[in-house]
Amino acid sequence: MVFAILRRGGRFTLLAFQLVIALGLAAPAPAEDGYDLWLRYAPLGEEARAAWAGSFEGISVPGPASPVMDAAAGELQRGLRGLLGRDIDPADSGADLVLATPGRLPALDTLDLPLADLGEEGYLVRRVALDERTVTLVAGNTDRGVLYGVFALLRHLGTGHSPAALDLVDAPSVEWRVLNHWDNLDRSVERGYAGQSIWDWWRLPGQTEQRYVDYARANASLGINGTVLNNVNASALVLTPRYLDKVAAIADALRPWGLRVFLSARFSAPVDIGGLATSDPLDPAVRDWWRDKADEIYARIPDFGGLLVKANSEGQPGPREHGRSHAEGANALADALAPHGGVVFWRAFVYSDTDPEDRVRQAYTEFKPLDGDFADNVLVQVKNGPLDFQPREPFHPLFGAMPETPLAMEFQVTQEYLGFSTHLVYLGTMWEEVLQSDTHREGPGSTVAKVVDGRLQGHALTGMAGVANTGMDRDWSGHPFAQANWYAFGRLAWDPDRGAADIAREWLAQTFSRETAFVDPATTLMMGSREAAVNYMTPLGLAHLMGTGHHYGPAPWVDDLGRPEWNPYYYHRADTEAIGFDRTAAGSDAVSQYAPPLAQRFGSLDSVPDEMLLWFHRLPWDHPVGGVTLWEALVAHYDLGVAQARQMQADWAKLSRWVDAERHARVKRFLDIQAREAQWWRDACLAYFSEVSGRPLPPGAEPPAHSLEHYRSLTFPFAPGN
Ligand code: GCW
Asked: Which domains are assigned to the chain?
């Protein structure tokens, strides 16, 4: 009964609350399905509401109507309605909440505001005196700046901050903050674990969905300003007129939220859909074709962002077939986009299927000599590590090593190698670790973050890309906590120096509950989750032990595939003597691709961090690690990973009173799967390493639940995302 009243809200809510408190019960949160993400705008408590009483009586937007300002004002009304429980009037004048740019409200110039430092997308939210009244001003130099300011204001309230602290001034450090969808035109999603693609290509352009708008709102709330709609393993069809009409319809839906559309381009498109005999980037007909194509795109989408290209990688066509370099390939497209202000993101994720060089060295070998050869509107997009989105890798050695070229960061939000959307793995910590790594390229303190945001080497064109984890699942990302990775990506793209813990707290407060008694332990749970996954999957610098193709579960034994680097065995090389990949000068010498202080640190057994040990070194099983043998240390790490996964179950169980029953139960079931799979990972890997090393498990260690044959026999047809 009490619950029914609560759900109905309105006047009975207070009464019901009092009743609940009187009875000493905790009020259960109403059922939620996760669709609203972190934009739930759950009601503030009475005290917090009271603190905001007298503010926000009406919204005024001086100047002409615009889609972005309409979006901003509408979101503000929606948010304040949820948070404060009252409807805020849209009013032309007399309102105490003013959304403005200097162009819209010339009086701003008299207020001595730091607008000059805010660029096109920065914002300022502050109490100011205007026309002899005190108002809350949300200002930017453009409507988009104001939109981001509105979301900052709502975040301020939504995370429980007080009016006294309301002075928000911020601008993005990175110019292009972009999601990459690996979504195919048939709505399958490569490495997608949250259902079909949200882009309903078949029904477009006639039918656009509310989901597109809600997707754009979510991105805008984080400051994400671009989205690449289709997979980098691209079909050239997306560049045909029929599909460009569909793309234009999506662009129209996203535009009011400051989100610009990009496409992945297949390098051979001039042949595939253009009827040309070649796609040689230096061929004049090919260059004309790309120019015409750009004109055709911009005629439909005047603010089109540009093109993303995966070339000469994993079977994709590229300039190499024509004897041209990646720079020559990128520049052909860049020249076509330049007159329209478009950019090219050219991926550095290349490794050849004919090259015997250590796979993790190949991108650097190929791209480093091209520094300075790329056109001004090209960003080279580099994955965070030199292999492929592993639970842990060192940062990619290209960061800092191409001073003449803007390098965009590519993170993978979707959890291809991290338990799909079944495991709770907060990636904020991983990304913080990468961004705060010191490249030492321009002396100490030359962090990857400073390379990416252009500070270190003086680039204005900058970018960060995140491979999206969205799909048609009601909660967008498949796992309630997978939403946190989308959130963290957006916040780090805006400011690569933000801390992962802060971001986790912010997300938790808006997504579940603002109570410290919830946020503190839940933050601890999130912050430890990635290390847990490293421990139960690939500890001590191991990598790529996942099942081939689908990347689900352990398969370190695979060693019989056509190409060496397709095999997990390639990465660990375990035998009776030793385990690990020798990347020192005595081995593949991948260490030499890092700046000298790091090459030395990683290359020497005295200084290499344990987390990177077997990434850089091949070592005998008895090698001492922290007072025990390497074999014992490996077993201990796997055991720790399992213990950590179990601890997450226990910790989450304690938080039920703060979370609605639906989402709490869903997370619980996922954590149960995760704990079982952690055990599976541990057992399968230890069974295998025990056999190849010829070493029994150390005394006291729990024997694997099954034989190695059992683990080897498991197959996973229809694993998602493959
Ligand atoms: O991580 C690997 C994936 C491929 C992906 C590729 C890439 C889109 O296994 O599915 O292809 O990287 O980043 O291009």
From this structure: 1-31 (no CATH), 38-170 (3.30.379.10), 176-511 (3.20.20.80), 535-581+618-713 (3.90.1330.10)
